[in-house]
Amino acid sequence: MSEEQKKHHWLEFRDIVDVPKWQQIQDNFAAVTKICLRTVDPQGVDITTPSNRPGLCQELRNNSSVVWKICGNCLPTFLGGKGVVDKNLNFPCLPGVHNFVAPLRINGGDAWGYILVGPLILVIRRPKEEYRQVAEDLNLDLDEIWDSLLEMKVLSFQGAQSLVELIKDVGEYNLKLAYRNAMRERELIMNFELPKLGKILEVLLEVAFQISGADIGSIMFYNKNKDELTIKVAKGLSEEVIRNARVRSGNGISGIAAREGRSFL
């Protein structure tokens, strides 16, 4: 148990986090990444509603005769499910289909909750025929299973790890901010925000590259006083460009996005 939990042992995730706001953040991440996300407490009880749940999962949950046999409640064994996790906190549910578990901790203590990332497909989608036996075992139509598998995101193992790390970092960052606000102890955040934020930005950029397939990119911060954007982290740009780039609000794609508060493709 962490020092924070020892001092305030009656507190739980729901006591310090605004769950509707957390749900909104989770929904946004799921919409962008096209991957199912949900948050559970240390007992495996859902804190949030699953975001972007695949059609196959919905179908299986409606088929009570097979759902426990195949999925349990889509949790690892240490949370009361049937998934056996490996050293990367990854567990399969169907051939080639994987889920990851991201623990949410404050200062390295015990987990206050977990984010379940998946199901997703690692490296390559298996041929349709390999799921024929699965369809027969589940008494489901092979085409329905295949259509659901086509909806699932395919990521390299490195891409999946980067995504899970990003979700974990953002989750823990917000959890710590929520704890600080709940306890009114600003010292809890000292020596955490800036180093952690830099790491989050680097992983966020890596995930953006994985999803978009881009070769060059950056994350810029807006300075309201100067009405300009500067680069905080970048990939594929020279140090000189990173150091000297200044974009006025309204100029260029990034400047327009900053001024109008919306994204552009």
Describe the protein.
- This protein has 265 residues and is α+β, with helices and mostly antiparallel strands.
- The chain is 44% helix and 17% strand.
- The strands form 2 sheets. Strands 1, 2, 3, 4 and 5 form a 5-stranded mixed beta sheet that branches. A 3-stranded antiparallel beta sheet has the order 6-7-8.
- A hairpin with a 2-residue loop joins strand 2 and strand 3.
- Helix 8 (157-183) runs antiparallel to helix 9.
Fold blueprint:
Layout: H1 3-7, H2 13-16, H3 19-33, E1 37-40, H4 55-61, H5 64-70, E2 90-94, E3 97-104, E4 113-122, H6 132-138, H7 142-151, E5 154-155, H8 157-183, H9 193-212, E6 217-223, E7 228-235, H10 239-244, E8 247-248, H11 252-260
In short:
With 265 residues, the protein is of the alpha+beta class.
Radius of gyration: 21 Å
Which range best describes the helical content: under 10%, 10-25%, 25-40%, 40-55%, 55-70% or over 70%? 40-55%
Query: End-to-end span in angstroms?
Result: 45 Å
Structural class call reads: alpha+beta
Poorly predicted ranges (pLDDT <50, ≥5 residues)? Answer: 4-9
Order of helices and strands: HHHEHHEEEHHEHHEEHEH
Strand content: 15-25%
Which features does this protein show?
265 residues; alpha+beta; five-stranded mixed β-sheet; three-stranded antiparallel β-sheet; 11 helices; 8 strands
